[in-house]
Amino acid sequence: MTGVKAMRDYKEETARRVEFIRAVLEDAKASGIVFGNSGGKDCALAGILCKKACENTLSLLLPCGVRRNYDEDARDARALADMFGIESRTVDIVSVKAALSALLGEVTAITAAASANITPRLRMTALYACAASENRLVCGTGNKSERYVGYFTKWGDGAYDFNPIADLTASEVLEFLRFLGAPEAILAKAPSAALTEGQTDEAEMGISYADLDRFLLTGQAAPNVRARAEALHRASAHKRRGVPMYGE
Q1: Per-domain residue ranges of the chain
Q2: Which CATH number fits domain 10-205: 3.40.50.150, 3.40.50.620, 3.40.440.10, 3.40.50.2000?
Q3: How far apart (Å, rounded) are the C-alpha atoms in residues 148 and 209?
Q4: Which of 77, 158, 220, 247 is least enclosed, having the fewest CB within 10 Å?
Q5: Hey, which residues does 61 pair with through a beta bridge?
């Protein structure tokens, strides 16, 4: 592929994604949706689309110890919910993680990576408990760029019932949010999983979203960018394929 991909028709995209969400809900006989609202771009877009498709859409704020979870991320998450009329609830899971970590520490030496991944897995547990209790489906909020390089936690934010934005790169998510009039603070902030203090997605991946998205959309990239993206893709293949099962 060569050249730069043309901007999508986001008015038409909105209508099609709303139709998709409604079809998923009808097929599951579900009466509502729940999504994790971190105050970031991906969950903002997923949440807006879900609200347009289903009035009974709930956003859960799930802070867990990192300072920005309680400050800018919480502020931005609530701003999104207020702007688009989305019900919002908060479940602080820091004490749950601390208790689990203490118990695990008695039987294993928990690495920093393992500890960081406990947070999204606890968030998944909270989302599914709410969904099961209120006949909701859990909406996924990961984009195409993250999926390609495996920038998500297996059985954490990688677990959901449906995902209305999985085909969009990070750059397209930003364009879509601008079209929908999302809060400026969300549009301007640096992407971060916010699992540790000072963390940013691009620093952790070792590649910028602009470079990664250009590679995904056009096939063009500097040799070092291509090498990094493809290495991350290979290393994370297990996250994207089904669980190996003997006899199948």
Answers
A1: 10-205
A2: 3.40.50.620
A3: 12
A4: 247
A5: 90
Q: Which residues are catalytic?
A: 42, 146
Give this prediction's pTM: 0.93
Name the residue among 164, 137, 193, 182 with its Cα closest to residue 44. Answer: 182
Number of H helices, E strands in the chain: 13, 4
User: What's the CA gap between 97 and 122, in Å, rounded?
Assistant: 8
Residue whose token pair is 């949440």: 47
Please state the separation of Cα 238 from the chain's center in Å: 18
